[in-house]
Each structure stands twice: as structure tokens, then as C-alpha cells.
Amino acid sequence: ILPGCSELIRQTSTGLVLGRLEEWDNKTVECYLGIPYAAPPLNSLRFHPPQPHPGWNETFNATTFEPMCIQEFAAPGQDFGQEDCLRVNIYVPYNSISDGTTRLLPVMVFIHGGAFVIGSGNYKAHILAELGQVIVITMNYRLGVFGFLSTGDSAALGNFGLLDQRFAISWVKASINSFGGNPNSITVFGESAGAASVMLQYLSPLNTGLFQRAISEGGAAIATWTIQPEDPAFFAKKLARFLHCPTNGSHILVDCLQVKKPAELMYGVSRLKEFNFTFLPTVDGLFLPDSPRKLSKNASLVGRFSYLMGANRNEGSFLWLQIKTVRSQADFVNVLKPFISVAEEKFSLLSEAMLWQYRNWNDLNYSSYHIQRQALEAVGDVGFIAPLVATAEFIVDARRDVYVYHFTRRPIASITPEWMGAGHGDELVFVFGVSLLGGPLQGDEEHILSQQIMSYWTNFAKSGNPNFPNKVPVIWPKYNKRSQQYLQLDINLSSKNVRKKLKAEHVAFWNQYLPVLQTTGD
């Protein structure tokens, strides 16, 4: 800990915490890492909503990241993380609360992505906090089977990961004043599954007054990949059978799963992959009383506050390993099938329409080169762009402000092929200012774009308007259904980056034509 650590003891709703200082570019940020925000979800608390932490008597050492929530790693047979993982990390501009007269800072709470099965809140957010003069909080929440197992009844309603997120935001609201943060100016933002989570928090009737603004990067709650399309109780029973647990009652099933070791549960989850099943959020009747699409049409819910949202040029890149195996029209259709909710007997009709919509008419032989790129674009459109536009229009219908962006700059250090452009999640290095740390992301253009994006994001957190109070290079117009204006985020921002009708033809195909086709013959 650097000199001045005695000043880094802060009071939270659960006890005192000791932080450390992070220095960069002659600037300093206070970091409080790995703070528990709820009781460890162990033993009888597994598969139940989060409970308050009993607190601690000694000062909690919050100077290092804590382990992520237990999850399945990409390497075969390698699981990592731990169940005692419900932690937050807090980044505060240094000396922002050195005296009692300083005004309270806006608060930004980040929800990480990872398809609800992987990921962690262990992001370095000190640059965003300092340059934006905001307090940034990141969090862990339960993932996979630990976060989303559901028996469809009171034994295990599911959505524990979403309830963790909500509990973390509530903890922040109760504690942030002593860090110099304004509990009545909280913006929740997230990426991918975290972006969808933000929208689910936005739509939940339980969250009235919990936060004031929302930002979603590359994820929408109404996308089909967000909500479990099948009966979760059916797969809870399958999991139980794999692990030799009784299935003749939900409560005894959950009791049995609660005493299994994490490795045993992860083994059972690996068996469920034979059925292409993933534990996801569900309509539980409480946190989510209805489907996200139906809730999005409820003006009293979506009209509560302003929203900033967007997507990247090639969101389909997250499926690239699968897409690059596409060789035929049948492969193309199979890649898209999980993103479309339709009866099996109508799928062939929809398949023909999709092939027609995305056909490369300059390549009538359907070369794998072109069909893979068509699949990549189609996945991005159906999974991200079309749900984004539909959600923006629901918010406009509720007479609230919404700002839409399309991010097109591929960062130098992106892991996606260069021809692909900005892939899924590529905006994160600019939002958190990673490019300002030097290393592989050198270059004045990227530094400038990162600063501009952080200005837009933190302006929105301060005022609900990305153009105010700090100066921005281009005025970002509100989205409306007539002109459908959005801001293309790339280097050399100018008025030319204000565009209209994001991917209008493909969006109309998914949001207007396909729903009509689905009802043909009903």
C-alpha cells in the first residue's frame, strides 16, 4: 500500500474496509477490491436468493482481487473459481472526499458478460473513474448452474445470478455515500450477457428507484439467447439423475444438490451439454413476471429513465469458431437455429427466407468463404442488432430518451481476424481506457477515441445525456422512430459519424418480415 493508506479506510453497510492506491500517468485512484456484498452462498444458501452478509468486526483488507465465481473454463476438465465469490470492487478518484464539502460523485456499476456461464468482475476500472470523475463498481455474480438452476417452483425459482446483481446494486446504494458517491445517481452498465442483465434489471418491477440510468453494450434482454427457452425443471431433474439425486420432489432434489461438491455439479453440467442445454435466466413470476419482450412493451417499466445502448460491427464474432466450420446452406441454417423461436414445422419456411435474405448474389456456388461471412453477419443481426433496434423503439414509445451507437473500430490488440473489424466485446478496452495504459494498444487515434467514449459514457452517468456536461467531439442525437439516428463510434469522430437507420434492411427482415412469416398458416 502506498503512503496515505491510513486515509483509505471507509465505512460500508457491513463494516470497515481498507483500500489501496493505484497510480498511473501522475494520477491516483483509490481501489477497494474483493469486498463481500452478501453472505457466501454456500450449503443451505446454494440455489437460493442472496442473503445479507453478517458483517465483520475487524477492518476488511480490500487491497487485492478475490477469486471469480466458480465456472467451467475453456480448457477441458478445468474448472476454477469458488462459490464464496459475491464481491464488489470500488474505484474512487483520489481525494474526491478529502473534505466534507466535496459534492457527491455519480456512480457507475458494471455487470460483466460471459453468456451467464463465465466471466468475472475483476476489471481494472481506475482510468474510467479518474478521467470521468465518477465512482466505478464492478461485481461478481453466480454463474451457470449455481446462478440459474431452476425447478420452476419455490424449491429453486432460479435467477439467483440476477438477484445477486440486484443485491450488489442495493449494497452499493447503502454504502457508497461514505466513498463520496451519490446513492441517488447510479448508472448500471454492462457488456454482452452483462448488457442483457442490465436490461433485465431495468425491466424488473422489483427495481423501482434502485438505479437511475442504464447502458447496454452488445446485448439485449429480448434476444432469444437471454432467456431459457425450454422447461428448466426438466433439466434440473436430468442433472439430479446424473448425480444420483431423487427427482420425486423439487425440495428433496434441491436438498441433495446442495450437498454435492462443486466438481460433481460441474460434471453433471458437462453431461447436460449432450442436450445443448445451458442454464440461463427464466421467467420466474417474481423478478421477471413475464417475458422480456412483453415487459418491454410496458411503458410504466421502460419509461422510468433514459438509456444508452449499442452494438459492434461484427457481434457474431463470438461464434466464429463454430461459424468457420460452415460449409453449406444447411450449416448456415443450423448456426442460426438457436437464435430463432419457432415451431419446428415452420422452420423450413423461415430457413428459405433467411437464405434468400443473406445470399451473396455474386457467388451463386455458395463458396464456404462467402457463406461463413453471411452466417457471421446474420448471427450478429438476429442476436444483437435487431433486438437492439426493437428495444430502442420500445423505449421511444414510452417517451423516454434513448441514445444508440454502432461501434466499428477494431482495436489493435483484438483477437479477431483483421478483416472482421470490431468484434463482440471489442469496445470494452475503449470504455475502460485500457488503451491509455500503453503496451500493445499504442497510438494517438485509439487514445483519443477511448477518451471520447469515456466522456460520452460518464456524461450520460452524470446527466442522462451523453453530450453534457463535458465537451464531446460530436453531438449525439436522441434516437427516434422517424430518422432513427445513431452515432457510429470510430476514430476521427465528426458529424459524418451521425448516421441513420442502422442496418435497416436486415433489421426489417428480423423485426417485421420474419414475425409475419412465423404466423403464416395460423
Automatic annotation (TrEMBL):
Q: Record's InterPro entries? A: AB_hydrolase_fold (IPR029058), CarbesteraseB (IPR002018), Carboxylesterase_B_AS (IPR019826), Neuroligin/BSAL (IPR051093)
Signal peptide positions are none
Q: Residue ranges of the Carboxylesterase type B domain?
A: 8-510
- Write the record's keywords in alphabetical order, separated by commas: Disulfide bond, Hydrolase, Serine esterase
Indicate the transmembrane segments per the record.
Answer: none
State the Gene Ontology terms under molecular function: carboxylic ester hydrolase activity
- Under which EC number(s) is this enzyme classified? 3.1.1.-
A matching Pfam family:
COesterase
Q: Does the keyword NADP apply?
A: no
Family statement: Belongs to the type-B carboxylesterase/lipase family.
| Record-given protein name | Carboxylic ester hydrolase
Task: Specify the taxonomic lineage.
Answer: Eukaryota, Metazoa, Chordata, Craniata, Vertebrata
